[in-house]
């Protein structure tokens, strides 16, 4: 038998590899999954840019140690000592949103309520857009919006085209606020929502659009906005806005985002796809 002579580094690697147990593999997979989920939550948000900036600072800290840059190392070390508190302050909205998502239990939605609500909203915003009447309608999803309903007019009304048009009538005292829809019902009107502070938002977007985008930054809600200046229909979700969409596109996007399409039997979804291909 011939003895195999491995370099010292390879032998060390083999010994480490042999010492790996099942619990170590599980530990690595769980940590990797958590990092992946965190990156998904941060994707497309300003928090991702801030995270990149923090990564650069951490790398500078290690390089300053290696190169023995004493002054820079001392400054970065002082900064790093309070890094955890800084992360909590900077990412407080994203952390709250992530924890709220983790803490929510998915509830099966009633197909008829959501399909009816969507259709009535689409018909209402179509007429409001034609008349250039501003509107802001928010669909609550997993994360509760109860904290934003203080001072609003609480309702428990069925979603209807006529009611939505009357609420957003310029002569109505509620027309400046938002309407919140939850569980297929209008739960509140005249709701004041937080404005987005994203500097990248187009300058021609007013307070109503900023409020629609703002509520989707701090929750998983879906906001439908009608511009009173241009008569455009827009949809905001996840801090992003799709502008000047058609009623048909709005209907499709709401159906997808509110889980209506996924609740349809597979044969109905297949039939819809075949009809789309023929068209």
Polypeptide structure, described:
By secondary structure, the protein is α+β, with helices and mostly antiparallel strands. The protein has 2 domains: 13-103, no CATH class; 111-264, YojJ-like (1 (3-Layer(aba) Sandwich), CATH 3.40.1700. Helices cover 53% and strands 13% of the residues. It has helices at 8-19, 22-42, 46-66, 70-81, 83-90, 92-103, 111-130, 161-167, 207-218, 247-257, 266-278; strands at residues 135-139, 153-158, 178-182, 185-191, 222-226, 233-237, 240-242. A 7-stranded mixed sheet has the order 2-4-3-1-5-6-7, with helices on both faces. Helix 7 crosses helix 8 (161-167). It is elongated and about 80 Å long. The termini are far apart.
How do you describe this structure in short?
The chain contains 11 helices and 7 strands.
Overall tally of domains = 2
The total of helices stands at 11
- What's the CATH first level of the largest domain? Alpha Beta
| Unreliable sequence segments | 105-113, 262-279
Count the strands? 7
Q: What is the rounded distance between the termini?
A: 73 Å
Roughly what is the average pLDDT, rounded to an integer? 79
Please summarize the sheet with the most strands: 7 strands, mixed
Strand content: 5-15%
Look at the structure and name the CATH superfamily of the largest domain: DNA integrity scanning protein, DisA, N-terminal domain
The CATH level-2 architecture of the largest domain is identified as: 3-Layer(aba) Sandwich
Using the alpha-carbon principal axes, give the shape.
elongated
Instruction: Briefly note the CATH topology name of the largest domain.
Output: YojJ-like (1
Strand order of the largest sheet: 2-4-3-1-5-6-7
Order of helices and strands: HHHHHHHEEHEEHEEEHH
How much is the radius of gyration in Å?
26 Å
Structural class category = alpha+beta
């Amino acid at each position: 038998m011939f003895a195999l002579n491995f370099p010292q580094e390879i032998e060390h690697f083999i010994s480490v590899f042999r010492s790996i147990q099942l619990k170590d593999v599980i530990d690595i997979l769980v940590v990797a999954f958590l990092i992946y989920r965190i990156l998904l939550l941060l994707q497309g948000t300003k928090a991702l840019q801030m995270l990149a900036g923090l990564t650069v600072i951490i790398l500078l800290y290690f390089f300053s140690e290696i190169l023995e840059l004493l002054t820079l190392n001392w400054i970065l070390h002082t900064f790093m000592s309070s890094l955890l508190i800084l992360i909590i302050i900077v990412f407080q909205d994203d952390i709250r949103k992530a924890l709220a998502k983790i803490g929510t239990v998915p509830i099966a939605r009633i197909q008829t309520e959501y399909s009816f609500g969507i259709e009535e909203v689409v018909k209402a915003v179509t007429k409001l857009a034609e008349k250039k009447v501003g509107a802001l309608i928010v669909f609550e999803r997993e994360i509760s919006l109860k904290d934003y309903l203080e001072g609003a007019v609480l309702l428990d009304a069925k979603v209807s085209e006529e009611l939505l048009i009357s609420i957003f009538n310029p002569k109505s005292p509620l027309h400046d606020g938002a309407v919140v829809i939850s569980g297929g019902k209008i739960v509140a009107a005249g709701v004041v929502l937080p404005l987005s502070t994203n500097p990248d938002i187009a300058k021609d977007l007013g307070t109503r659009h900023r409020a629609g985008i703002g509520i989707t930054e701090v929750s998983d809600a879906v906001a439908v906005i009608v511009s009173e200046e241009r008569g455009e229909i827009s949809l905001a979700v996840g801090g992003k806005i799709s502008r000047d969409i058609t009623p048909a596109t709005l209907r499709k996007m709401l159906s997808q985002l509110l889980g209506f399409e996924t609740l349809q039997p597979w044969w109905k979804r297949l039939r819809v796809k075949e009809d789309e291909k023929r068209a």
